[in-house]
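sry for the spam today, last one i promise. struct tokens for design, 53 residues
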């Protein structure tokens, strides 16, 4: 997995998260400048029903 190490400081930021069934979307907003700073999606395999013996 690729990671970006960036430090954001001196401004107010809002982290918005959008959970789905097999993904999570996210966005980081700079409130002072009214701009989107970063955004992304993390996909994963959907959960499977547990088997009860």
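last one done:
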């Amino acid at each position: 997995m690729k990671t970006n190490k960036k430090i954001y400081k001196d401004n107010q930021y809002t982290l918005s998260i959008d959970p789905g069934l097999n993904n999570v979307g996210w966005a980081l907003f700079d409130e002072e400048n009214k701009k989107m700073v970063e955004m992304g999606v993390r996909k994963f395999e959907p959960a499977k029903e547990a088997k009860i013996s």
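The first strand starts at residue 13 and ends at 19. ok im logging off now
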